[in-house]
Design a protein that fits this description.
heterotrimer; A mainly alpha; B mainly alpha; C alpha/beta; A: mainly alpha; MetI-like fold; 11 helices; 0% strand; C: Rossmann fold; 6-stranded mixed β-sheet; 7 helices; transmembrane helix (chain B); ABC transporter permease subunit (chain B); cell membrane (chain B); transmembrane (chain B)
């Protein structure tokens, strides 16, 4: 960048050291905060770890995880299939793209949690409503990013495909898919994050099982150690999946930040 | 290729732009029509969905009687308070990250993962720390809103074309003059995009927090009415939030497009 | 061999598609087997439209393109096309790009690879078989594009300003390379360009297009003896021909520019 000379610069080692230090600083702050308030308000990291291990031993954590993960996998799979389908269809047709783009973006801006009661009316109290709600969160970023990735396909590449007389399927498989893959992967990551958020929110608001439900139960019972243990598990799941996606994005050379894509 | 894409078969003699608008209006009318007539025609049970006109009626009643006012105040204070805080902190932090390259490098992976964390899980934690009321809601909404502003500000400043900076240097502008006359105007559209998203996120954060655990506010009102089988009251509050979100998004998108147009041409 | 007869192309214009614009008007041209023919013309004269019509990517409003008497009705295996730029696939290596068309048309893997390797050697990219297009210069990418087209063994190769995005030095070198490849493969080439020097350096005949509506003002034989090298470009014969073509083209370029200005004004 142009402004490099005006910036402070250290070598890569310092950056790496800093990156390692961030979670340690968070842990230390947590410890200090826990010690300065009563144990009822905030459990220490050690107590939380103990509750985490206890939760896996006694099984309540595993039950909750199973339920939440089942909902997550089904909702996410549906969000991917529908999102990519909608994105490709709208990306292939200029007219319908222009019609639906502002509608899709507008709907995306509505706080979806507002509409959650409707999902409860339609899908009842069980897993279905959480799956539908998670899907509703995740399908938008997948569709929107697939749609905008479709716009990055080089016209010349499609001309090449036509001049080489590729069939529709060959063009899709060998030109469209590799062209949109980098943008698509960003959409899949954001879609996962929002699906996850939707599932946990749904469980927190109205459920009889799942980690979100258990989380709210422990708050009501003012048991901060198991509550924090659940938060740690949720954060770990999100982190692992996202690190995997980042590796894939780097491999595919995806460009653009989250913000540019979501705008 | 360059062939004319007529979109749909019937040619009404309209220009393409007007056709797009017509079909958009039809889609929106279709949704509105469904909400209005599906319960009336018995396609959907009236305990599940009420006609749009009744939602409007109920909402007008609630607004007129003043029953909605305390919830409105609570939600607006949380949304705008969180957003104002996020704006000041976010832009400031964004400038710092842009200036201190190594700090940006350290924090980059964490900033990227930030929105992956199911954020509302922390809300109960805040409630147990500082109790119910507006403070934990405002904090969650702030936390939800601030990072998108930080990253947009930092990348907006970072993506200013080098030629602008060189031109500024060539004219011997001071640091302050550079900020005031080069960096700031050149990055406005990008920063604004962050602010737009920041506002939407503050709204989502507020409504969702109220939804889960609160004792007042629009989100709470929807959840409360749902739990007490007051379908009319629930849909009235829902309608208000949806319209508020759509209007704010529309206004901010309009301003955003104008800003980008100026920078692009 | 290639016969272009009375080709016209009209486009609908603007948002309402009511007014029309005549891009091509009554184009006639015949290209013989083994010939190298260039089409030059001012910006916006419809050269690229003509290229797309001959290649079967766009249907003409009137007229016909035939090869050995049988009509071209769409993308055709007898025609190979080389595009201006950004046409190589960045997600494939050089050799995968070159064998792309063969693989898609059902040529078995080993054979496709062998033929692609041969072609890569012919276009002078030996040693870069497994490089990514993004690591290569614009000129090398165009070599890849040329190899990808030639490996399909088309009867005629259409090229739309293939060196248009390159710097002058690279353009000259690639021009000489193209002549060598043309000799070695006995290809028939129809070459679209806006560069007069390039047209004179390469072709047997040069067709000069008018400003819109695009039509051929004149078709000039280029008798400058081959092989043509750097010295050729400083001969009187070369410069005379360039001058002659420029005289024809100059008026058309001015016309083209004022059309462009009018169009921009109308859009405001």
């Amino acid at each position: 960048m142009s402004t490099r000379s005006t910036r402070f610069r250290f070598d890569g080692d310092v950056v790496l050291l800093g990156r390692v230090a961030v979670p340690l600083v968070v842990l230390a702050l947590w410890q200090v905060l826990a010690m300065s308030v009563s144990g009822f308000a905030l459990a220490t990291p050690a107590a939380t770890f103990e509750a985490l291990v206890g939760g896996f031993r006694s099984g309540w954590m595993i039950d909750g995880l199973q339920r939440t993960m089942t909902e997550l996998v089904v909702a996410y799979a549906l969000a991917i299939v529908v999102g990519i389908w909608v994105g490709v269809v709208l990306g292939l047709n200029d007219f319908w793209h222009d019609v639906f783009e502002p509608i899709v973006l507008g709907t995306y801006a509505i706080p979806k949690v507002t509409l959650f009661p409707i999902f409860l009316f339609v899908f009842q109290f069980g897993m279905d409503s959480k799956i539908a709600f998670g899907w509703f969160h995740g399908v938008f970023p997948v569709a929107i990013l697939t749609m905008s990735a479709m716009a990055t396909i080089e016209d010349t590449h499609l001309d090449v495909a036509r001049s080489l007389r590729l069939s529709r399927w060959q063009t899709f498989r060998h030109v469209v898919v590799p062209s949109i893959l980098p943008g698509l992967v960003i959409g899949l990551r954001l879609g996962f994050n929002l699906t996850f958020l939707g599932i946990v929110l749904g469980e927190m608001f109205a459920s009889r099982a799942g980690l979100g439900y258990t989380l709210v139960e422990y708050i009501a019972g003012v048991q901060t150690a198991p509550m924090l243990a659940i938060i740690v598990v949720l954060v770990l799941i999100a982190t692992v999946v996202n690190v995997g996606f980042f590796a894939l994005e780097n491999h595919l050379g995806s460009r653009g930040s989250d913000t540019a894509q979501m705008a | 290729m360059s062939e004319v894409d007529r979109g749909f078969g019937v040619d009404l003699g309209l220009s393409r732009t007007n056709k797009v608008r017509l079909v958009q209006a039809l889609v929106v009318l279709g949704v509105v029509g469904f909400v209005e007539f599906a319960p009336r025609l018995g396609l959907v049970s009236p305990t599940t969905l009420i006609p749009l006109s009744e939602m409007v009626d109920e909402l007008a009643g609630l607004l007129g009687s003043g029953d909605l006012t305390p919830h409105l105040i609570q939600t607006f204070v949380a949304v705008f308070g969180a957003f104002a805080l996020a704006l000041v902190v976010g832009i400031g932090a964004g400038v710092v990250l842009w200036k201190v390259e190594s700090l940006k490098q350290v924090l980059d992976p964490y900033l990227l993962i930030y929105y992956a964390v199911p954020f509302f899980a922390f809300y109960p934690l805040l409630v147990s720390l500082i109790g119910l009321g507006i403070a934990p809601i405002l904090l969650i909404a702030f936390g939800f809103s601030v990072v998108i502003i930080v990253t947009n500000t930092a990348s907006g400043l970072g993506e200013i074309p080098e030629s602008y900076v060189l031109a500024g240097r060539d004219m011997n502008l001071s640091t302050w003059q550079m900020l005031r006359h080069v960096y700031f105007p050149a990055s406005v559209p990008y920063v604004f995009t962050g602010l737009k998203l920041g506002f939407v996120y503050a709204l989502i954060g507020t409504i969702a927090s109220e939804f889960i655990l609160a004792d007042s506010g629009l989100g709470w009102l929807i959840a409360y009415n749902y739990n007490n089988f007051d379908v009319r009251g629930m849909y009235a509050a829902m309608l208000f939030v949806v319209v508020l979100a759509l209007v704010m998004n529309g206004v901010l998108s309009y301003v955003e497009n104008r800003l980008y147009r100026r920078v692009r041409t | 061999m290639l016969d272009i007869t009375d080709i016209s192309k009209t486009y609908g214009l603007g948002d309402d598609r009511v007014s029309t614009i005549v891009a091509l008007d009554d184009i006639d041209l015949t290209v013989d087997r083994g010939e190298f023919v260039s089409i030059i013309g001012p910006t916006g004269c419809g050269k690229s439209t003509l290229f797309e019509v001959i290649g079967g990517l766009v249907d003409p409003t009137a007229g016909e393109v035939t090869i050995e008497g049988s009509p071209v009705t769409g993308p055709d295996e007898r025609i190979g096309m080389v595009f201006q730029d950004h046409s190589t696939f960045p997600w494939l290596s050089v050799v995968e790009n070159v064998e792309f068309g063969l693989r898609r048309s059902g040529v078995e893997k080993g054979e496709a690879r062998d033929r692609a390797m041969e072609m890569i050697e012919l276009v002078g990219l030996s040693g870069f078989e497994h490089a990514d297009p993004t690591e290569l210069s614009g000129g090398m990418n165009q070599r890849v594009a040329i190899a990808r087209t030639l490996v399909m063994e088309p009867d005629i190769v259409l090229m739309d300003e293939p060196f248009g995005a390159l710097d002058e030095q690279t353009r000259l070198i690639l021009g000489e390379e193209l002549l060598r490849i043309w000799r070695e493969t006995n290809a028939t080439i129809l070459f679209v360009t806006h560069n007069i020097n390039e047209a004179v350096q390469l072709s047997d005949r040069i067709a000069v297009m008018s400003a819109r509506p695009g039509t051929f003002k004149t078709i000039v034989d280029n008798d400058i003896p081959r092989p043509r090298d750097d010295d050729t470009m400083s001969t009187d014969a070369f410069n005379d021909l360039v001058q002659r073509l420029w005289t024809v083209l100059k008026d058309e370029s001015k016309k083209g520019l004022s059309q462009k200005a009018q169009q921009a004004g109308a859009e405001q």
